Amino acid sequence: MAGLKAVSGNDAAYSAACLFDRIGEFLHAHRLDPDPGNYAFAYHLIAAPEGPLARAVAELTDGGVRLTRRDIESLGGTQSDEKSAGPAIVQRKTEGLVAQTQMQVEGFEDMVQAMRVEAQGFGRDLAESAAAIDRSRSDAGIGGAPMLDNVARITAGMLERVRVAETRLDAATREAAELRTKLEEARDNARRDPLTDLPNRRAFEEAFAAQTASGELICVAICDVDHFKSVNDRFGHAVGDRVLKAIAEALTQSCQGHLVARYGGEEFAILFTGISRGAARATLDHARSIVAAKRYRLRDSDEPLGAITISGGVTLAGTREDYATVYQRADALLYDAKSAGRNRICYDK
């Protein structure tokens, strides 16, 4: 958050009008609606430029990435104390803990499996020894029978204990495998949007990094729903959620073979790999036309929602180009599409 300065009520340079202007500039830069929640968030951020909220925002916006509505929600909305940055920090710590726990469970599972194999081998050896002792008892005659009986009894007892241990190890192995599966699901859920079941922003950025390392041709598209706020205002968030799910489905079907993610709020991102910029633009434009052609209606009254459209920007990622630069370029193209009348896809030529 470079450039932010503390605001003092006694400093004429930071009058109410100046503070209002700076808050407006912040909201405009991040394309945030000037509603009370966003305004209060911006106020607390600008008023405490060295506070925990500002540090968390600086981390999220490193390289010029703009905030989304979901980012603000994850940062605690309008609060400016340590709790405001808590959810984002807690999420990162939780993901680290899940990864560490999964490694420990995998190690435990391997250890239990090795113990299970050793117990089975020891059990087989004991069973063979018991059979040999039984044969020896019949050959030893009366004088050697008591001693062999005692050995046989001890061996039988050990064999039974080994069998019990094998049963317990079997159960422990199954429990470890189940826990490992649940931990894998938890890690997957941390990178998945609960509403649309698409990968989320974190998963998208990780996929970009992986594809960049592979050297494959990459195009990034950023798109969002035109006038989405009016849908929520007129029909409620439940209807807005259904619209987002429908658009997520349309993008996924039209962009098969490529990664579609919900980037935050009404914004989606697509990672095109192995195709040209023109082909990526054509693919996304096909998805746009499908969304625009669909006629959305309320379930209870069959009332039409009106036209729902999306706009987007597509850019080709240069070799070893960092994600923030690519995102900014795609986002600027999205701005161009909005400025040109919406319901269109722009791309750099």
Explain what this protein looks like in three dimensions.
The chain is an alpha+beta fold and 349 residues long. The chain has three domains: 12-80, no CATH class; 93-190; 201-347, Alpha-Beta Plaits, CATH 3.30.70. Helix content is 63%, strand content 9%. It has ten helices and five strands. A five-stranded mixed β-sheet has the order 2-3-1-4-5, sandwiched between helices. Strand 2 (259-264) and strand 3 form a beta hairpin. Helix 1 packs across helix 2, helix 7 (228-235) packs across helix 8 (237-254) and helix 8 crosses helix 9 (277-293). The protein is elongated. The two termini are 32 Å apart. Residues 1-14 and 78-90 have low confidence and may be disordered.
Summarize the structure.
By secondary structure, this protein is an alpha+beta fold. It has three domains: 12-80, no CATH class; 93-190; 201-347, Reverse transcriptase/Diguanylate cyclase domain (Alpha-Beta Plaits).
